[in-house]
Amino acid sequence: MNEDAKLINPDEVPSVTPAGWGTLRRFTDARIALGRAGHSQPTAPHLAFQLAHAQARDAVHLPFDAHGVAAGVQALGLAVMHLHSAAADRATYLQRPDLGRRLDDASRALLQQRPTEPVDLAFVVGDGLSALAIHQNAVPFIEATLARLQADAHPWTVGPVAIVEQARVAVGDETGAGLRARCVVVLIGERPGLSSPDSMGLYLTWAPQPGLTDANRNCISNVRPAGLAIEAAANKLVHLLAAARQGQISGVGLKDDADDHPSALGGGHDPSHNFLLGH
Asked: What is the pTM assigned to this prediction?
């Protein structure tokens, strides 16, 4: 829930009848225990809902600052390629999801013309349904992940970062194959929720190639300051990458057991701690 909404506690407004379980609100951004004013929703959460809805719409239509993201990536010492999906503009992208899943002819030709050696890993950064999420989270996440990969006992070779405009997740398969990457990780803006317009998703695919389905991918979702923090997401991804390389597989064949290994999540995560269980 946004900061403006937190300024007003419905339990402290005389005209609002508290829900009686408002203490649980501190555990979630979900709109729970809002109370009531007569038979209606109180004014404050109603206005907060309208604001959140406007922020979600803005996130979908915010222009992608691909060059700004590229500058941040280059500052990390990585090469960049600018690509575009077959969706020519935002309106087409929203109405034709299939076009967002493949590259346009110019981008495909650029990949084919580029001499490249095979690499272990390629990052693909796409605006998806929230350019805001990529603007805020992509570069810090790549920086955090690179630090961990460089410290790995078995070093990873990392190819140029492909920045794809009007992208959907599956465009990473064609891009990764064009870069001759053994594994591709797609960073993409997720469909904005009503409290999370800045949420970034990560999709890992081993042996990317056109025509794969979601069953071939592993997903890490809700990467943002108020969700899964950058450092924790980087730890989780590196854990999955190691398992993918060992088994030469991803998707339903790759068990995501990072939560069973607290050290893989930075050492501070205790899966047995659950406020609902009273621990």
From this structure: 0.83
